Amino acid sequence: MQTPGLAETIAIDPLHWAVRAQLGAVLLVAGLSLAPLTILVARRIFPGRNVVFARWGFSHVFGVVLVGGAAMGLLQTIWPVRSDALDIQVAFVRSAAVLGAVVALIARFAYSLDPEGWRALGLWRGMHARAVATGCVAYVLSWPTLVGLAFVWPWILGKLGIEFEPQSALEAFHTLPRDRVALIVALGVVVLPFFEEVLFRAFLQPLLVQNFSEKGGVVLTSLLFAALHGESAFLPVFGLSVVLGSVMLRTQRLSAVWAIHALNNALAFALVGASTS
Q1: Please, which pLDDT band fits residue 50 given cuts at 50, 70 and 90?
Q2: What is the C-alpha separation between 184 and 148, in angstroms, rounded?
Q3: Is there a contact between 50 and 253 (Cβ–Cβ < 8 Å)?
Q4: What DSSP line would sit under the chain, residue for residue?
Q5: Of 234, 239, 233, 229, nearest to 144 (Cα)?
Q6: Quick one: average pLDDT of 210-236?
Q7: Are the beta carbons of 85 and 176 closer than 8 angstroms?
Q8: What is the pLDDT of residues 83-116, one digit of tens each?
Q9: pLDDT band of 252, cuts 50, 70, 90
Q10: pLDDT tens digits for 154-211?
Q11: CB 123, CB 256: distance < 8 Å
Q12: pLDDT, greater one: 275 or 218
């Protein structure tokens, strides 16, 4: 179960996708032209960076996958989502439970394998305000690119003969009872982004960076992250993940990427809420 992303929220209306794709292309060009400025500002706000050596290996990644798969299978058996209608609350809580178990195992690996313990997961002391500021600035300057990808992607899927389908969580949020909104928003904005960033940016990315270079590690992590969000959200989520991975490389602070991810999801919920009011 994935939280509704900003990209899918923007692209949910199927009307005039060709026109939106043209606007998206313009935004992409504008956004990419801002990339050097984004890098310069990020380096100015957060000068220097720490190099993290991941002492865990691919066998530990395999163990995390097994635990996540087993937890999901167990919950699917004892606490299934109704087939007649998406129970978004159950789906979000289940996702939080599975990711929580995965993150607990990751924390155990980091603490036992690394002399610096959880620091390897981006839990360094100090400079968190700078790191969060770096992340937020990078996210804001990347907005033209991210919105451009959201506008272009549905059109690309149409040309490939693939139907664009908004995420089920996005559709379900429109009919969510008011007494459930607070819990879903808390999970989608605070809890799930934290768990996902521990898994992808703090645990998986350092290992891939060590084996496939910095750019290769960020790209591979982003490909996996985007693939889990489904084909309708693939390219926009990939773009967001590249921003997250780059910020993690610069700051090595989990707080920075958590802040970006939380802000992105909060904006998505806000847009969905505004569209239903």
Answers
A1: confident
A2: 28
A3: no
A4: --PPPHHHHHT---TTHHHHHHHHHHHHHHHHHTHHHHHHHHHHHS-S-PPP-----HHHHHHHHHHHHHHHHHHHHHSPPPSSS--HHHHHHHHHHHHHHHHHHHHHHHHHH-TTGGGGGT--SS-HHHHHHHHHHHHHHTHHHHHHHHHHHHHHHHHTT------HHHHHHTT--HHHHHHHHHIIIIIHHHHHHIIIIIIIHHHHHHHH-HHHHHHHHHHHHHHTT-GGGHHHHHHHHHHHHHHHHHH--HHHHHHHHHHHHHHHHHHHHHHH-
A5: 239
A6: 93
A7: no
A8: 444 577 778 888 999 999 999 999 999 989 888 7
A9: very high
A10: 889 988 888 877 665 656 666 677 777 888 889 999 999 999 999 999 999 999 999 9
A11: no
A12: 218
pTM for the predicted model, two decimal places: 0.90
* Residue type (1 letter), 34: L
